Amino acid sequence: MVKEISLENFEQEVISSNVPVLLDCWAPWCMPCRVVSPVVEELSNEYEGKVKFGKLNVDESQEIAVRFGIMSIPTLLIFKGNKLVDQIIGAVPKERIKENLDNIL
Q: Which of 11, 25, 42, 81 could pair covalently with 75 via S-S, beta carbons 3.0-4.6 A apart?
């Protein structure tokens, strides 16, 4: 399951999470984001219980986008132990995302 993340729940769902978090930073008008979204959904099922998955609309949560220096979307941010530990920019293959997740688990 992929949870909607916003400024209101970012600290609780991402920073305070006791499992790693993959945060899909996207916007409704972004075509490559629409390519990445179903891949993130698939991975949320494959990594259930091991990694939390969230989606952050950068248009609605610009403060978070600025805080983490997001300049282009889609950007996948990976958090572990309340810190940003990895970042993937652009529409990349599922295997690349899995590789990055496996490296932090």
A: 25
